[in-house]
Protein backbone atom coordinates (compact mmCIF):
# COMPACT_ATOMS: atom_id res chain seq x y z
CA UNK A 1 0.00 0.00 0.00
CA UNK A 2 1.37 3.40 -1.00
CA UNK A 3 -0.14 6.59 0.38
CA UNK A 4 0.97 10.22 0.06
CA UNK A 5 0.16 13.32 2.04
CA UNK A 6 -0.50 16.61 0.30
CA UNK A 7 2.59 18.78 -0.20
CA UNK A 8 2.79 21.37 2.55
CA UNK A 9 4.78 24.60 2.30
CA UNK A 10 6.66 25.54 5.48
CA UNK A 11 8.23 28.95 6.07
CA UNK A 12 11.56 27.44 7.10
CA UNK A 13 14.59 26.31 5.08
CA UNK A 14 14.79 22.61 4.16
CA UNK A 15 17.90 22.13 6.32
CA UNK A 16 16.00 23.39 9.38
CA UNK A 17 13.02 21.06 8.82
CA UNK A 18 15.37 18.13 8.17
CA UNK A 19 17.24 18.85 11.41
CA UNK A 20 13.97 19.03 13.35
CA UNK A 21 12.77 15.70 11.92
CA UNK A 22 16.01 13.94 12.88
CA UNK A 23 15.20 14.74 16.53
CA UNK A 24 12.55 12.10 17.19
CA UNK A 25 11.12 13.95 20.20
CA UNK A 26 9.83 16.59 17.76
CA UNK A 27 7.38 14.10 16.24
CA UNK A 28 5.22 14.62 19.32
CA UNK A 29 4.51 18.17 18.03
CA UNK A 30 3.25 16.69 14.75
CA UNK A 31 0.90 14.10 16.24
CA UNK A 32 -2.89 14.41 15.98
CA UNK A 33 -5.03 15.40 18.97
CA UNK A 34 -6.00 11.74 19.40
CA UNK A 35 -2.53 10.83 20.66
CA UNK A 36 -2.77 8.51 23.66
CA UNK A 37 0.95 7.85 24.15
CA UNK A 38 4.27 9.24 22.97
CA UNK A 39 7.58 8.01 24.34
CA UNK A 40 11.12 8.48 23.06
CA UNK A 41 12.88 5.11 23.35
CA UNK A 42 16.27 6.02 21.94
CA UNK A 43 18.16 8.69 20.06
CA UNK A 44 16.51 7.57 16.80
CA UNK A 45 13.34 5.78 17.91
CA UNK A 46 9.98 6.41 19.57
CA UNK A 47 6.70 4.71 20.40
CA UNK A 48 3.32 6.30 19.87
CA UNK A 49 -0.30 5.24 20.11
CA UNK A 50 -3.46 6.91 18.96
CA UNK A 51 -6.70 6.38 20.85
CA UNK A 52 -8.19 3.03 19.85
CA UNK A 53 -5.05 1.91 17.96
CA UNK A 54 -2.15 -0.33 18.98
CA UNK A 55 1.26 1.09 19.91
CA UNK A 56 3.67 1.60 17.01
CA UNK A 57 7.42 1.87 17.34
CA UNK A 58 9.25 3.85 14.67
CA UNK A 59 12.97 4.25 14.18
CA UNK A 60 15.03 6.33 11.79
CA UNK A 61 16.12 4.03 9.00
CA UNK A 62 17.83 6.43 6.62
CA UNK A 63 18.76 10.10 6.28
CA UNK A 64 19.66 12.02 3.14
CA UNK A 65 20.63 15.53 4.30
CA UNK A 66 18.66 17.84 3.86
CA UNK A 67 16.07 16.35 1.54
CA UNK A 68 14.82 13.07 2.99
CA UNK A 69 14.31 11.14 6.20
CA UNK A 70 12.96 7.59 6.33
CA UNK A 71 11.30 6.10 9.39
CA UNK A 72 10.61 2.37 9.57
CA UNK A 73 8.37 0.28 11.76
CA UNK A 74 10.27 -1.70 14.37
CA UNK A 75 7.61 -4.45 14.24
CA UNK A 76 8.02 -7.33 11.80
CA UNK A 77 4.25 -7.95 11.79
CA UNK A 78 3.55 -4.44 10.46
CA UNK A 79 6.33 -3.73 7.95
CA UNK A 80 6.13 -0.17 6.66
CA UNK A 81 8.14 2.98 6.09
CA UNK A 82 7.24 6.63 6.43
CA UNK A 83 9.36 8.87 4.22
CA UNK A 84 9.56 12.63 4.57
CA UNK A 85 10.63 14.35 1.35
CA UNK A 86 11.79 17.95 1.82
CA UNK A 87 12.35 20.27 -1.16
CA UNK A 88 13.62 23.85 -1.03
CA UNK A 89 11.17 26.32 -2.55
CA UNK A 90 13.18 29.43 -1.64
CA UNK A 91 15.96 30.34 0.79
CA UNK A 92 13.46 30.64 3.62
CA UNK A 93 10.82 28.05 2.74
CA UNK A 94 10.45 24.43 1.72
CA UNK A 95 7.84 21.92 0.68
CA UNK A 96 7.29 18.71 2.68
CA UNK A 97 5.46 15.57 1.59
CA UNK A 98 5.10 12.33 3.52
CA UNK A 99 4.91 8.94 1.83
CA UNK A 100 3.72 5.77 3.54
CA UNK A 101 4.70 2.38 2.09
CA UNK A 102 3.56 -0.85 3.67
CA UNK A 103 3.02 -4.47 2.80
CA UNK A 104 -0.34 -5.64 4.10
CA UNK A 105 -2.91 -8.18 3.02
CA UNK A 106 -6.04 -6.91 1.28
CA UNK A 107 -8.23 -7.07 4.39
CA UNK A 108 -5.72 -5.17 6.54
CA UNK A 109 -5.21 -2.59 3.78
CA UNK A 110 -8.93 -1.87 3.62
CA UNK A 111 -9.12 -1.44 7.40
CA UNK A 112 -6.13 0.89 7.81
CA UNK A 113 -6.13 2.93 4.59
CA UNK A 114 -8.47 5.65 5.92
CA UNK A 115 -6.85 6.08 9.35
CA UNK A 116 -3.29 6.02 7.92
CA UNK A 117 -4.20 8.57 5.23
CA UNK A 118 -5.67 10.90 7.86
CA UNK A 119 -2.64 10.34 10.11
CA UNK A 120 -0.01 11.27 7.50
CA UNK A 121 -2.10 14.27 6.40
CA UNK A 122 -2.17 15.49 10.02
CA UNK A 123 1.61 15.03 10.37
CA UNK A 124 2.16 17.01 7.16
CA UNK A 125 -0.26 19.82 8.08
CA UNK A 126 1.47 20.15 11.48
CA UNK A 127 4.95 20.67 9.94
CA UNK A 128 4.76 24.46 10.47
CA UNK A 129 4.71 23.74 14.25
CA UNK A 130 8.37 22.68 14.10
Number of strands: 8
Order of helices and strands: EEHHEEEEEEH
What is the CA-based Rg, rounded?
14 Å
In the residues, how many domains can be counted? 1
Query: CATH class, please?
Result: Alpha Beta
Number of helices: 3
CATH topology: Alpha-D-Glucose-1,6-Bisphosphate, Chain A, domain 4
Major β-sheet, in short? 8 strands, antiparallel
Quickly give the CATH architecture: 2-Layer Sandwich
User: What fraction of residues sit in β-strands?
Assistant: 35-45%
**Dominant shape:** globular
Report the CATH superfamily: START domain
Mean pLDDT across all amino acids = 95
Helix percent band: 25-40%
Assign the structural class, choosing from mainly alpha, mainly beta, alpha/beta, alpha+beta, or little secondary structure: alpha+beta
Low-confidence stretches are none
Distance between the termini: 28 Å
Give a brief rundown of this model.
This protein is about 25% helix and about 45% strand. The chain has helices at about 15-20, 25-30, 105-125, and strands at about 1-5, 10, 35-40, 45-50, 55-65, 70-75, 80-90, 95-100. The longest helix is centred in the C-terminal third of the chain and has 20 residues, at about 105-125.
Amino acid sequence: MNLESPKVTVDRPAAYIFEQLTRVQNFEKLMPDTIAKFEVTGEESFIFALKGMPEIKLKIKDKNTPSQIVLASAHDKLPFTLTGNINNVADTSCEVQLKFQGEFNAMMSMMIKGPITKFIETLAYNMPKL
